[in-house]
Design a protein that fits this description.
It is a multi-pass membrane protein. Its main location: membrane. The protein is mainly α and 262 residues long. It has a single domain, classed as MetI-like (MetI-like fold, Orthogonal Bundle). The protein is 81% helix and 0% strand. It has twelve helices and no strands. Helix 2 crosses helix 12 and helix 7 runs antiparallel to helix 8. The longest helix has 34 residues.
């Protein structure tokens, strides 16, 4: 028993060392921009950079659109599959897992081939169309996480009973969806939303190949041309990711507490 406990703590110590020692080294290096002393000059340089503000704001906007439209796509799909088409569940799960198997560069080249300026749907012929195509790309990348989060939340409620009760009271499908289903799966929606946000903020391939001013290409550009700012940006990106993961845990716990109340 003691040996098992020892090896468990040893494994935890190795994991903590593996993850946090490089992070501490990166943070320490980001403070060395001023010669001979530690300072936050690198962070000040990053936050005062107009390009940082523009790219981060653009990625935030793209993340918002991705979350909203992804939610409007995934929640009705998961609801309809669970209620009316349970036999299609394996197929839908297979489709939502495809972005994990197909590399992002293959997906975006397919989009460029299908939606270039010479095609019948020339998304890349305008900035608005390219932004729409980028949001569609992000929705594709987030499908495995958003669908799993929503489907897991939907398993905890009796979809059929809720639907039948709402129909007996005279509710139409939009009312059932937005007044009955969405509030009950909100914990899953928020979990998927935070994961989607973290993916969009750091995504490089699709934004770079579509030539959009996103945060991912900016990270690469700064990393190739500056010394201390890339370390500061790495810490900032890491903090954003961990903040998203922490919010997922809070939402999950809140959802469990809400369900446990009589």
């Amino acid at each position: 028993m003691k040996m098992t406990k020892f090896f468990a703590w040893f494994a935890i110590a190795v994991g903590v060392t593996y993850f946090f020692v490089p992070l501490a080294g990166t943070f320490e290096f980001s403070l060395r921009m001023r010669r001979g002393e530690y300072s936050l000059d690198a962070y000040g340089s990053v936050f005062s950079d107009v390009q940082f503000q523009q790219t981060f704001g653009f990625s935030m906007l793209m993340a918002l659109f991705t979350i909203v439209f992804g939610m409007l796509l995934v929640v009705p799909t998961a609801y309809w599959v669970r209620l009316r088409l349970p036999q299609m569940r394996p197929f839908v799960e297979f489709v939502t897992l495809m972005p994990l198997v197909i590399p992002a560069i293959v997906i975006v080249f397919g989009y460029l081939r299908l939606y270039n300026s010479a095609s019948y749907i020339p998304f890349t012929g305008s900035l608005l169309g390219t932004n729409i195509l980028l949001v569609m790309s992000y929705i594709t990348l987030s499908l495995p996480y958003m669908y799993r989060s929503v489907d897991t939340a939907m398993r905890t409620i009796d979809v059929r009973t809720l639907t039948e009760a709402a129909e007996i009271l005279g509710a139409k499908w939009p009312t059932i969806m937005f007044r009955c289903i969405f509030p009950n799966v909100m914990s899953g929606v928020l979990s998927g939303a935070f994961i989607t946000f973290a993916i969009v903020i750091g995504e490089f391939t699709m934004a770079a190949l579509l030539n959009r001013p996103a945060f991912g290409p900016y990270l690469q550009l700064v990393g190739a041309n500056k010394a201390y700012e890339p370390s500061a940006l790495a810490i900032i990106a890491f903090a954003i990711t961990w903040l998203s993961m922490g919010l997922i845990q809070l939402v999950s716990r809140f959802g469990k507490l809400t369900q446990s109340r009589p």
